[in-house]
Design goal:
single chain, alpha+beta, Arc Repressor Mutant, subunit A, SH3 type barrels, six-stranded antiparallel β-sheet, 9 helices, 49% helix, 19% strand
């Protein structure tokens, strides 16, 4: 394993540990233990401290601002990959972890943003941990104010291109995508009461009001 990979793995480990509270050096070492012993030793951790990525105080270790800046995109890629693997590809929790680890080191920034948009800018990973926001998430927030509205805010007859889906239930997202309700798709508002009905190409779909309220789009 290259030193850059070890560094990335360590800052990722500390980030996830600090989400639950404080982090110890022993915890970091145990998380990177293999059959031959610890992969991470005091020398490596001291080097990270000299590099300004971590701060060590006795048995405790924490990320500096620079360390958090390095860990943030890694955590974002990993957790978005988990959502992609479970929500779209239907992979089990047991199988997705190794694949997500591969994605976190290989996804280019542009592809990461594209995946985030495809998934509707999810806020949490399948385990319930928060996904750090990206620039695309902020653009989506700004768009809601001036251009994009939820489906229930549009009028009957309007044709809407879906921008993102603000729902966190992976089963629901999977069902919507399987029906063609996904970012980039165009839907026509057919009915709003008593049931909410949208049309995708030649297919009409009835959805609940709260689901319509979580699907955002721009009028075509």
């Amino acid at each position: 394993m290259k030193i850059v990979d070890v560094t990335s793995e360590i800052v990722e480990t500390i980030w996830t540990c600090e989400e639950k509270g404080s982090c110890t050096i022993d915890y970091v070492k145990k998380e990177h233990e293999d059959g031959d012993g610890y992969i991470v030793d005091d020398e490596i951790l001291s080097e990270l401290e000299r590099s300004g990525l971590v701060e060590i105080r006795g048995p405790m270790i924490s990320l500096t601002a620079e360390g958090k800046a390095k860990a943030r995109p890694i955590i974002r890629r990993h957790r978005l990959a988990e959502r992609l693997l479970t929500d779209v590809l239907g992979m089990t929790f047991e199988d997705m972890e190794e694949a997500a680890c591969e994605y976190e080191h290989t996804l280019a920034p542009g592809l990461t943003e594209a995946i985030c948009t495809l998934l509707g800018h999810p806020r949490d990973c399948p385990h319930g941990s928060p996904i750090p926001e990206g620039e695309c998430c902020q653009r989506a927030e700004n768009s809601v104010t001036s251009f994009v509205k939820s489906l229930d805010a549009w009028d009957i007859g309007d044709v809407i291109r879906i921008s993102f889906i603000r729902k966190t239930d992976p089963i629901l997202i999977g069902k919507l995508i399987s029906m063609g309700v996904a970012p980039g798709k165009e839907v026509k508002i057919r009915q709003k009461f008593p049931a909410y009905v949208i049309q995708i190409e030649q297919t009409q779909i009835a959805i609940e009001q709260d689901i319509a309220a979580g699907i955002y789009g721009l009028k075509v």
